[in-house]
Specification:
44% of the residues lie in helices and 19% in strands. By secondary structure, it is of the alpha+beta class. Helix 5 runs antiparallel to helix 6 and helix 5 (132-166) packs across helix 7 (188-200).
Length: 202
């Protein structure tokens, strides 16, 4: 078996990796080597998530492919919700992927939203290497991002509602079904397809 490293040697990445499923070949203090179809992917994981797994175990990970200058890294998460939190935080100047991953590993989207709305610092108290100034920056900048997400979600839900009403479904049943939408549905079309399947099972 040969362990490999691809540096900035002119190799072009054609596809971003979004999901991996395989066996943990090697586990270190902040990453794993995930064996997928005879290829080992080095995936960064948070300390909290690393505590959940062991070598030889099979896992499924949502991934973010991080490109910075000539460096390529994979950051892994056990849920799509964690991935979305990471992607919001990672965009903030001065935060970076390591801190973003730490935050994503300790809370749900709703917990993060509540902490930011209430300026509650207690959610972040156990984060190693993240000082008060970083936390203040997260709270300040993420509040704007959350507002954009809420506005986008509200518009999409309105479009879903109108589409399903035109198909003869009742407003109340659509409202209830919208509450059950999985977090990994990102477009209006995906939401409509999911709800049509939901109603067909009744």
């Amino acid at each position: 078996m040969v362990y490999c490293h691809l540096g900035g040697s002119g190799i072009q990445l054609k596809t971003m990796i979004g999901f991996l499923k395989g066996k943990i070949l090697k586990k270190d203090k902040d990453w794993v080597i995930l064996l997928v179809d005879k290829i080992g992917f080095k995936v960064n994981l948070s300390e909290k998530d690393l505590e959940r797994i062991k070598e030889g175990e099979e896992v499924s990970l949502y991934c973010h492919t991080y490109l910075h200058q000539e460096r390529l890294e994979l950051y892994g998460f056990f849920s799509f919700e964690q991935l979305k939190i990471f992607q919001i935080l990672e965009k903030i100047s001065g935060i970076g992927p390591k801190i973003a991953q730490k935050v994503a590993s300790i809370c749900t989207f709703e917990e993060l939203k509540k902490a930011i709305q209430e300026e509650d610092y207690s959610l972040f108290k156990d984060l190693k290497g993240v000082g008060k100034k970083k936390i203040q920056k997260i709270i300040l900048e993420v509040s704007g991002e959350l507002k954009k997400i809420e506005e986008k979600t509200a518009q999409e839900d309105k479009e879903v509602m109108e589409a399903l009403l035109s198909l003869g479904f009742k407003r109340n049943e659509i409202k209830e079904a919208l509450k059950k939408l999985p977090n990994n549905l990102q477009t209006t079309e995906e939401k409509i397809k999911f709800l049509l399947k939901h109603f067909s099972k009744k």
